[in-house]
Each structure stands twice: as structure tokens, then as C-alpha cells.
Write a structure and sequence with these properties.
The complex is a heterotrimer of chains A (251), B (114) and C (604). Chain B has 114 residues and is mostly helical. Helix content of chain B is 64%, strand content 0%. Chain B starts with a helix and ends in a 13-residue tail after the last helix. Chain C has one domain (4-512, 524-602). In chain C, α2 (27-51) runs antiparallel to α3 and α3 packs antiparallel against α4 (110-127). The chains are: A mainly alpha (251), B mainly alpha (114), C mainly alpha (604).
Chain lengths: 251, 114, 604
């Protein structure tokens, strides 16, 4: 199809789609007037039922926990998928680790390296804080997991990488991913054994506002945090490996 | 005025699709797909907004306070994760495409016809 | 004991464990664990299938039962069709894993992990009763499928095919999500049964129509209904053969199932007055899909693209069945889905054998290699006859149920489309058989798509490995068995009654009522007209095959002129399938607008 025909087809289609969307969206309640029963009930049941102050977390991990389990596994699938799709390059260009003497610092600038090294600790602590407090404040496993991943990559940025070598301990990252993902599913089984239904909250709710509250929410947040950290480390690591290989081609 | 967020969502959807159809670079195409996905976030969050409502975190507000809908926040969180994963996979494919075809231009990749 | 959650949880845990221990497991462990998990899922789904004959079952996750008529948690609402489709998916997954046993390049355990995740996504999607939960499982299934389609990264086409697949299907997913957002904005709930009641009470305006249109369009992208279908041939041509078997036999039908589920259990009450209009739109869309798929099927030289277009053609047939919006149509579509799913899977298995032995999937090249491989040829012809919907096959019964349903609703003209589709696809398959196994026919113009010659399986090309051949034969026998097992068709009819009954679905989910048990319908025997149509179809198939194989030998102005005329029609159709992602998305957008426009006219 020539591009003119393509644009004509798209143009007509887009016009029709625009009309359709406006017609449909016009039926929505005015902004701010949403009166959904379901959301209202969940928002105001979170504290009494689970003693956790973040109703979003309770919705995510308790009322609609199965959605979150699958969502976590979607991220897991993407990590495995990226490993699969970028695999031949790894095997083709596998090079043995080079001796210490040939290690090159990743970042050229000394201030970047020192700043990065200094920030690893605080960011790691921040990530753990956000993961563990997911049931009390905005945050949780997904957000905290991304921050933890960032902290670990700062180690790479601030340190030195082996020339043309592999970037990171792949086994440990995959283990983190797998343990996090399977961990969530296994905690759900705990719900079956101890409470009667899959993913049912089987730990006592505890006291409002304390770290140990919300039942199994902190555990689930930790599992998700591990999984997200591992999956993103794998994904970004794969892409960085590609770049290292391309540099090898030019060097 | 209250239609504006919904209008923005519709606009993002359409402009993202336009970008995909007219794209000449795979990475640009994938980012346009991200724009399409963003339209759903805007739509969901606009739907769940309640005027005068605050975030549904009851750490420091009385439980009778009007809050926005927590479910759309959950849906949007799931949505964001899904988008990130699809983008990651597609970018991996783009890397492979560059290695195989030497180009990122969809017009030049003619392996599949008929 | 509740079985429903384990059908999903077991493959997920297995996938997590396999990846967690990735550096320690070798290939044999990974394959064994994956196969064990898939067999376990099959057993669970079969148990569910037997149990829900006594009435649909609801499982609430997290122990959140409905309070005061409001569904708080997420439910798995399992009825016969849901459990049946889940069983079909898991059976095909077992077959695919066995076929992968000798696969040359399996990146263990990552490949097995992806397959298990794909299985979990499909099974969860079939069993779910919550709109957003369906979307999440749909995404899991899709993301795994994107990675599996692009698996053979040492081939150029695999990258392009997987890209086209991923971009179009992601756009489809976000159409679905927009539809869900609209529904949520109106109803404030996500449980399908609850949505049905709330939509019924509210105004039936543009929002409801547009929401249904977006949901349907998104699912039609996955199902590959025209004009959302362009990605399918690209993806099926490049995926590893056992994965294609899963895609064709299980994944494509899920889109049709989803539209049926959300119509009957979500929107039907609210839009019931307009059911006739919807019927017309869906049947026309189904006929268009069936014809485009069948015509493109005949034109293919690449075996897997041929089967891919046949898949599209049969999706059109399933849509015609669903589009009837009656239990007859749905029953016919269901019988057809199972029988055709098994038959297509057998054909993909046979294609895998051919690829292993002959190192090619291009009919041109295979014809040149001369006759041989009789046993595989027999299996292929069995599959082709299943396309032709001949009497002992399950497809014959499915087709006759559809014909009855069409006549009852006044759409008898669509029977001609059914006959044409079956004749063209069966003819294409028979022509392929003649070329591959008998060396008949003459060389034509060079193939449009590059042939693949890289062997997929381990082992020498002189012998067909048992792991390839045995599952293929079993699948082909399955396609026959659906038609021969007594009482099966009647069970499908009963299950269809259950499926279209939206109000009892709501009662089961929200009020804990006992669902209606499967009623044994009166014994079904195909009317004489079905045999006549079947004979017509078979004659047509033979004619198509003959023209394909020997047509160039017949000289004569009439033949030449008809040939030129068909070329004039067909060449632009072929040109549309260009492989360019921009084209596909343009047609997708146009298709959504067209679907929306038709719904606006039909449903207002």
C-alpha cells in the first residue's frame, strides 16, 4: 500500500474514531461527580477491616489481589521474554571474564562516580522504606522495587565494569525475580491453608498505623518488590549488554 | 470544561495512533504506542476523581473525609506495569530488527508480503 | 475442594520456580516440570468441566463474597464453555510441549517458562468472571505470545512478524481498556454480573454502545476478524510450529469467546432490544472474515501462512455462529471450535513433520523434492477433510448446527458463505497435499515470502521422530472423535443454553443461587440438507484443488479470462497484506470506526 492510500485510510478511520470517542465519553458523569459504589465501599472499609491506612494498597493486594498477582507475572513474563529475544547475541558473543587489570570505570567523570557511590546507600534505604510501608503510605512493592533497581544500577554506574564482559550476576537476578513471583503465589496458598480461600489475608490485622499491620500486606509488598527489582535488573541488564556488544564492535 | 480531561484522553489516543501509522523509526513507533497507552491512564484517573476529594490514604485524615476512588488507582497501576512490559519487549524486538535489517525504518523491512 | 484457582496458580508457581533456579536446572528438568504442570492444569480443567455440568461454579478470591448485593472481590465464574475452552487450551499445550521435546534451540528453562505463563493466561481468561480480571489475564497471555512468536530470532521474518503482532495486539488491548474505563465510569463496578444489572438500570445511550464497540474491537483484533486480521498470518508464519499449534487451536478462539461472554453476561440485558441489529453486523463481519481468509488461503505458497489464513477463515465462521446470538448458533460455533481446533492443530503438527523431514515449508520447493512421506500425507488429508466438514468429522456437525441456526433466523444466504469457505480452505489444503506428498502440479511464480529452511528439530531428516508424529496423529483422531462420540453434540447444545442465559449467570454470581444444570437436549441428527451442503462443499474443494494443481495445463479462452478476472480481484487483496505495520494500524483504526458506525446504526 502506498503511503497516500495508507494516510487516506487512517484519516477516515481516525475521524470516525474521534466521533465515536466523543459520543461515548459524553455519557460519562461530569468530572468530579463519580458516584461509584464499589470504590466508596472499598475506600471506607480498608481501615476497619485491614487496619491498613492506604486503601489503594488494600485494594491492590487484598480485595483485588489476584489482579496484582497476574500483573506481577506480566512483568515477569516481559523479563523472561526480553532474555529470550536477545539471547543469540549473548551466546554468540560470550566472552570470558577479563582480569582485574582491564577493568574500566563506567562513567568518565570522577564526580559522577563519587556521587553515584555516595547515593547507593540512601537510595537503597529509600527503596526498602517504600516497599515495606506500602500499606501505610502511597508506595508499595512496585514503586519501591523500581527504586531498589535504580540503587543497584548506581553500583554499576559508579563502579567499574569489566571490559566487554558480562554486566552482572544473572543467576542472582533471575533468582530474585523467580522468588518474588513464586513467593506471592505461595503466600496466596497460605491463604488457602490458613484461612480458606486463595489469597485470603491470613495474618491478624494488627494495629492501625504500625508497620506490622494490614495482615499479609507487608509480605506481599516485599515479594512484589523483590520481583520488580529482579525483573527490571534483568531487562535493563540485557539492553546494557547489547550496548556493550555494540561498543565492542566499534572498539 | 469538565469534558476536558476526557477530551485529552481521546486526543492522546488519536495522536498516538497517527504517530504509529506515519512512523519511520521503530523506537519512535514504540514511544507513540506508549502515548496511546497514556490516554487510558488519563481517562481512568479522570473518571475516578471526586471534587474536593483527597488521596484515599487515611494515615492523617478522618475516615469520613471525601476521597477519590481507589479502584482507578489500582487499575492505573496495573496499566502502567503492563505498558512498561510491552514497551520492553517491543524495544528488544527493535534491537533485533536493527541487527537483522540494519535499519529501524518500517518501510525498509520487507520480509513479509502477501 | 475448590479446583478453579489451582488451574492458574500451579503453572505460575512452576514458572517462578523454573526461573528462580534458572542457572541450576538443565533442559530435561525444565521440560519435565513444564509438562507435569501442563498435565496438572488439564486435569484441573477437566474436573471443573465435569463439575459445572451440574451448574456453574463461582470462586471468590481472597474470601471476598458479595456483601449486600455488591461484588467486592474478584470471581472466577466457571460455566461449561469456560471450563471446556480452558480444557482445550491445556490439552493443546500438552501436545505442544511434547512436540517441543526434540526442539533444537530451546532456551531452557526460559522457553518452558513462557509456555507455562501463556497457559496460565489462557486458562485464567476462560475462567474469569470479572471484566478487569479478564483484561489482566488477556495481557499475560498476549505478552507471553509476543515473546513466543519472536522466538526464532535468527530469522528476519520472525522479528518483523512478532513486531506486527505485538503492536497491533497492544493497540487492541488498549481499546479494551478504554472500553472497560467507560463501563466503569457508568456503572462503578467491574464484576461482569454486576455490570449487567447496573447497565440495565441506567440510560442506554451512546456510552454503552461505544463501550461495547471498543471492547468488541479489541477482542476482534486478537481473534483476527477482518480488518483487524493482518497481523495473524505474519505471526503464525514465523512462530515455532508447536507454538503455532497453540495459537491457531486455542488463542484465536478466545477473542470470539470473550465477545460472547461480555455480550450475554454483560450487555445483553441492557441492549436486548437491539439484538437483531447486532446480529446483522456480526454475521456480516463473520462472512467477510471467512471469505477474505479463504481466498487468501488458496493463494498461499508457504504452508504455515496457508494454515494461518485458514485460521482467519474459520474465525469468521465462529463469528457467524456467535453472531446468531442464539443457543443454536453458539452451540454450532462451539462444536466447530473444538473440532476445527484439533484438526488445525493436527495440520500444524503435520507441517512440523514436513519441515523436519524436507527442511522447507514452501510448496514450490516441496513439489520439486518429489513424492514421499505417505503417513504424514494421510494425516494431512484427514485434516483437510476436517476443513471440508465431511460427515464423520466434528466440523460436519458444527456446520449443520450453524446451518439450522442461520435458516431459523432468516440468514440462509450465509450458508453459501459457509460452503465457499470450507470448499476453498479444504481445496487449498488438498492442493498442498498433492504438491507436497505426490509432487503433482506445476511450478508457478516465485513465492512471495522467503521460505524458511533452518531445521527446527533435532535429529536426522530421514526419519520422522515419534514425538512429532504421535501427537499429530492423536490430534487428528480427536478431530474425528468429536463427531463420533455419542451425546457430545447434545451436551454442547445444553452448554450453549447455559452460556446465553445471562440472568441465571447473574443470580449464580451475586445471590449464590445454584446454577441450572446442563440439560440433555434431544438427540441431534443432521438434516438431509446438511449432507447435501457437505457434498457440495467436497465437490467444490476437489474442484479448487484440481484447478490449483492442474489448471495451468488447461488452455482455453474461458479459463484464461476467468483467471485474469480473478487475478484482478485478488491482486489488490494480496497487496494489502504488505507486512508494513503502518498499513495494519491504519486498517485497524478504520475497522474500529466502521464497527462503531455499524453499532451506532444497529444499536440505537
Amino acid at each position: 500500500m502506498s503511503s497516500r492510500v495508507r494516510y487516506a485510510v487512517f484519516g477516515t478511520g481516525a475521524l470516525g474514531l474521534a466521533v465515536l470517542l466523543v459520543w461515548g465519553l459524553a455519557g460519562l458523569p461530569d468530572l468530579g461527580d463519580f458516584a461509584g459504589r464499589y470504590g466508596h465501599v472499598l475506600a471506607h472499609s480498608a481501615v476497619p477491616q485491614r487496619k491498613a491506612t492506604s486503601s489503594i494498597s488494600v485494594t491492590t493486594f487484598d480485595y483485588r489481589g489476584i489482579d496484582t498477582l497476574i500483573e506481577e507475572f506480566i512483568l515477569f513474563t516481559a523479563a523472561v521474554g526480553v532474555m529470550v529475544l536477545l539471547r543469540v547475541q549473548r551466546a554468540e558473543e560470550e566472552v570470558p571474564a577479563e582480569p582485574e587489570a582491564v577493568r574500566r570505570p563506567t562513567a568518565r567523570s570522577a564526580s559522577l562516580r563519587s556521587l553515584g557511590a555516595a547515593l547507593v546507600g540512601p537510595i537503597l534505604v529509600l527503596g526498602i522504606y517504600i516497599v515495606v510501608h506500602g500499606h501505610l503510605t502511597p508506595g508499595g512493592g512496585f514503586q519501591g522495587g523500581v527504586i531498589l533497581m535504580t540503587a543497584l544500577f548506581l553500583i554499576y554506574l559508579a563502579g567499574s565494569h569489566m571490559n566487554l564482559g558480562r554486566l552482572r550476576p544473572l543467576g542472582a537476578m533471575e533468582a530474585s525475580e523467580g522468588v518474588g513471583a513464586a513467593g506471592f503465589a505461595v503466600i496466596g496458598l497460605g491463604g488457602v491453608v490458613l484461612a480458606g480461600s486463595y489469597l485470603e489475608n491470613f495474618i491478624a490485622p494488627g494495629q492501625v498505623g504500625y508497620l506490622v499491620s494490614g495482615g499479609d500486606l507487608p509480605l506481599l509488598n516485599i515479594a512484589v518488590g523483590l520481583e520488580v527489582m529482579g525483573a527490571l535488573l534483568v531487562v535493563l541488564g540485557e539492553f546494557l549488554d547489547q550496548r556493550l556488544l555494540m561498543k565492542k564492535g566499534q572498539a | 470544561m469538565s469534558f476536558l480531561p476526557y477530551g485529552v484522553a481521546a486526543w492522546l489516543l488519536l495522536i498516538g495512533l497517527y504517530g504509529i501509522v506515519t512512523s519511520r523509526n521503530l523506537v519512535h513507533l514504540i514511544v507513540c504506542l506508549t502515548v496511546v497507552q497514556s490516554s487510558t491512564y488519563v481517562l481512568l484517573l479522570a473518571i475516578g476523581y471526586r471534587s474536593g476529594g483527597t488521596a484515599p490514604i487515611f494515615a492523617d485524615i478522618p475516615s469520613s473525609r471525601r476521597v477519590v476512588d481507589p479502584i482507578v488507582a489500582t487499575l492505573t497501576l496495573t496499566d502502567v506495569v503492563v505498558e512498561a512490559t510491552v514497551a520492553a519487549l517491543l524495544l528488544a524486538l527493535a534491537v533485533q530488527a536493527h541487527r537483522r535489517f540494519g535499519t529501524l525504518d518500517p518501510n525498509e523491512m520487507g520480509a513479509l508480503r502477501g | 475442594m475448590d479446583v478453579a484457582p489451582y488451574a492458574v496458580v500451579v503453572p505460575l508457581i512452576a514458572a517462578g520456580v523454573l526461573t528462580g533456579l534458572a542457572t541450576q536446572v538443565n533442559r530435561a528438568i525444565a521440560e519435565t516440570l513444564a509438562l507435569a504442570a501442563a498435565i496438572a492444569v488439564t486435569v484441573f480443567c477437566a474436573i471443573l468441566l465435569v463439575r459445572v455440568a451440574a451448574g456453574a461454579e463461582v470462586y471468590w478470591f481472597g474470601g471476598w463474597e458479595p456483601r449486600a448485593g455488591l461484588a467486592i472481590g474478584v470471581s472466577f465464574t466457571v460455566d461449561t464453555f469456560g471450563a471446556g475452552l480452558a480444557t482445550l487450551c491445556s490439552v493443546l499445550m500438552v501436545a505442544a510441549l511434547v512436540l517441543m521435546w526434540r526442539y533444537r534451540d530451546t532456551d531452557a528453562p526460559h522457553f518452558q517458562t513462557l509456555m507455562l505463563l501463556f497457559l496460565a493466561g489462557m486458562v485464567g481468561f476462560c475462567l474469569s468472571g470479572d471484566l478487569f480480571n479478564m483484561f489482566v489475564f488477556f495481557e499475560l497471555m498476549s505478552v507471553a505470545a509476543f515473546a513466543l512468536a519472536g522466538y526464532k530470532i535468527d530469522e528476519d521474518e520472525a522479528v518483523e512478524g512478532s513486531l506486527n503482532f505485538a503492536v497491533t495486539n497492544t493497540i487492541g488491548s488498549f481499546l479494551i481498556l478504554t472500553g472497560i474505563a467507560l463501563v466503569y465510569g457508568r456503572t462503578g463496578v467491574l464484576n461482569l454480573a454486576q455490570i449487567s444489572g447496573t447497565l440495565l438500570d441506567g440510560p442506554h445511550d451512546g456510552l454503552v454502545v461505544v463501550a461495547f464497540c471498543l471492547l468488541a474491537a479489541g477482542f476482534f483484533v486478537k481473534a483476527a476478524v477482518v480488518p483487524f486480521h493482518f497481523w495473524l498470518a505474519d505471526a503464525y508464519a514465523v512462530a515455532p510450529t508447536p507454538v503455532c499449534l497453540l495459537f491457531a487451536g486455542a488463542m484465536s478462539e478466545l477473542g470470539i469467546y470473550a465477545v460472547g461472554r461480555i455480550w450475554f453476561d454483560g450487555f445483553a440485558d441492557a441492549l436486548a432490544v437491539h439484538a437483531d441489529g447486532l446480529r446483522t453486523v456480526l454475521i456480516v463481519a463473520g462472512c467477510l472474515t471467512a471469505l477474505v481468509g479463504a481466498v487468501m488461503c488458496v493463494l498461499q505458497d508457504h504452508i504455515k501462512r496457508l494454515l494461518a489464513f485458514a485460521t482467519i477463515a474459520y474465525v469468521g465462521v465462529f463469528l457467524i455462529g456467535l453472531g446468531l446470538l442464539t443457543s443454536d448458533g453458539v452451540a454450532g460455533a462451539a462444536v466447530y471450535i473444538v473440532a476445527d481446533g484439533l484438526g488445525k492443530a493436527a495440520l500444524f503438527g503435520a507441517a512440523g513433520v514436513v519441515q523436519h523431514r524436507r527442511r522447507s515449508v514452501s510448496l514450490q520447493r516441496l513439489r520439486e523434492l518429489g513424492p514421499g512421506m505417505a503417513a504424514t500425507g494421510v494425516v494431512w488429508v484427514v485434516g483437510a477433510l476436517s476443513f471440508a466438514a465431511l460427515p464423520p468429522f466434528g466440523t460436519f456437525l458444527g456446520k449443520s448446527l450453524l446451518e439450522d441456526g442461520l435458516v431459523k433466523e432468516g440468514y440462509g444466504w450465509a450458508i453459501a458463505v459457509l460452503i465457499a469457505t470450507s470448499a476453498l480452505t479444504a481445496g487449498a489444503a488438498l492442493r498442498a497435499a498433492g504438491a507436497m506428498f505426490l509432487g503433482w502440479g506445476e511450478s508457478g511464480p516465485p513465492p512471495a515470502t522467503e521460505e524458511e529452511s533452518v531445521p527446527e528439530e533435532e535429529g536426522t531428516p530421514e526419519r520422522t521422530p515419534a514425538v512429532l508424529f504421535v501427537p499429530t496423529v492423536v490430534l487428528a483422531l480427536g478431530a474425528l472423535a468429536v463427531g463420533l462420540v455419542p451425546g457430545l453434540v447434545e451436551a454442547f447444545e445444553g452448554a450453549a443454553e447455559q452460556f446465553v442465559d445471562g440472568s441465571s449467570y447473574t443470580a449464580v454470581v451475586l445471590r449464590g443461587a445454584n446454577g441450572p444444570a446442563l440439560e440433555a437436549a434431544s438427540s441431534y441428527s443432521a438434516p438431509a440438507s446438511a449432507y447435501v451442503y457437505s457434498a457440495l462443499t467436497f465437490a467444490g474443494a476437489l474442484a479448487v484443488a484440481a484447478v490449483g494443481l492442474f489448471g495451468s495445463r488447461v488452455r482455453g479462452s474461458i479459463v484464461a479470462r476467468t483467471s485474469d478476472a480473478t487475478q484482478a480481484v485478488v491482486a489488490p487483496l494480496r497487496a494489502l497484506h504488505s507486512g508494513h505495520i503502518g498499513d495494519y494500524v491504519a486498517w485497524l483504526v478504520a475497522g474500529v470506526a466502521l464497527l462503531g458506525g455499524s453499532f451506532a446504526i444497529a444499536l440505537q
